[in-house]
Amino acid sequence: MADSILLGHAPRPTDGAQLAKRIRTLVIAAEPAGIACTSIIDAELDGADIARLHLDLTDFILAGEVDRDRARLEPQGAAVSSESAVLRHLTVKASPMRVSGAEVTLDAQLNDLPFRWIETDNRELAVELARPSNEHPLHGHALVSVPKHQLGAAVLALTESSLLDMGVSVSKLELDVEALGPRSLRFTVDGKVRKGLLGASVHGSATASIDDRMGVTLTDIKLESGNPIVAALLAATRGRIQGYEGRRIDVAAELPEGIRLADVQVRVTDEVIVEARLV
């Protein structure tokens, strides 16, 4: 059952305390085994609707793909009934939580999220979040920050399985971000990669600027290697990469339906801080 999250056995909870208890079980299943759950969860129901849900995920550790207890995260049965509802106000905070080895600070508020209560043929209860649409767009704002020195390790952890599927392993990835202004960033990447018997260091850099209409323009794009063989391979793709030089990417148009960015601000100190507002 796609996009469904298991919440125990049917029927659905009838008060906020029951719902909070079920969500706590879900949080425990999403953490590595043996980790004590310290998350604070508070909920209020109004009939089928969730009037308010507050999650404080401070010290939460998101388990890796292998460690997650999928038997307690995803329903196994087929849906036999459903009931439409709305999550009117969702607040998620973390100061911080750990995702792929990075300490992520999060402060998000979202309003009016449609979803469905699902019952399966083996008496499971699940929630299925509706995809945002132009008729029901996401509303709210979010702030996410990550220590700058942890960015490389976090990106590597998130992309490692995809790279391995392509036969590429990365032994080192250092990612640096420099703020050139409130909407302009300079990225530099240094990594050590291996594909088969061929290993090399790779260096890349680019500047990204965000305009008032949520368009991103990339400039000063560079990708090179000290290994002459790898450098030759990179040269073969350089033309395609350089095709992005000075080209404006309409991020707002590329976003899924129902997600409309009104504003994005980026600050860089010892942390990379991104603030976004949805309308």
From TrEMBL:
Protein name: DUF2993 domain-containing protein
Organism for this UniProt entry: Agrococcus citreus
